[in-house]
Amino acid sequence: MLVLMAALCCIGLPSLFAQKYACVNTQYILSNVPDYAIAQQQIEKFSAEWQKELEGKIQEVDKMYKSYQQESYLLPDNLKRKREDEIVSKERELKELQMKRFGSGGDLDKKREELMKPIQDKVYNAIERIANEKGYAFILDKSGSATLLFVNAKYDISDQILDLLGYSSSAKGTGDADAAGGSKKVDNPEMKKPR
What is the pLDDT of residue 14? Predict the structure, then answer.
């Protein structure tokens, strides 16, 4: 049995090493796509507006509670309970609003999906196109949770992805938009330093 497993491993290893592979840094790619920065700004704007809305509701509940504390000793029991119920109801509304805006699957998640998905799909399609054109068996993302201890710079195709998206990866130039082609020149710092 052990011999059979060793033989299977030996047969499979040459085909594994024969496959072409590459890596990308999607954080680097996205940081050089202007639409991504614009989407980030829009998400931050929505987040700030919704946070301001929540803070207004918090102040409203706080004001109700302080008013109740000042007047509670003068109120009859039935009015005390009514005011307490109103405060509890407002606190529940506040929690519901917080979950609606910032909870899992809430408005912020939906807005992020709406604004980011088209950009991420565009990058993924460019990665897939290069993988098919160049015959890569697999492409790793070195910016995410995948742990890579070493990546030879010659296997990093992040700049090719940017080129395909219309952004020049040439290190020459100032980083300003090219007047003729409208492409932006970027410099990948990952390509210069060893990992």
Answer: 47
Residue 77 lies in a domain: yes
C-alpha to C-alpha distance for 190 and 151, rounded to whole angstroms = 10
Q: How many domains does the chain have?
A: 1
138 vs 128: CA distance, rounded Å: 10
- The pair of structure tokens assigned to 85 is 């119920």
Domain that includes residue 136, residue range = 17-191
182 inside domain: yes
Instruction: Name the one residue in this structure whose structure tokens are 């590459």.
Output: 22
Task: Give the start-end residues of each E strand in the chain.
Answer: 20-24, 136-141
Q: What is the pLDDT at residue 66? A: 95
Residue 6 lies in a domain: no
Q: What are the residue ranges in the chain where pLDDT is below 50?
A: 1-16, 149, 171-186, 189-195
> How many CB atoms within 10 Å of residue 157?
23
* Position 101 in a domain: yes
DSSP 22: E
Tell me if the pTM is above 0.85.
no
Contact assessment for residue 139 and residue 24, using Cβ atoms and an 8 Å cutoff: yes
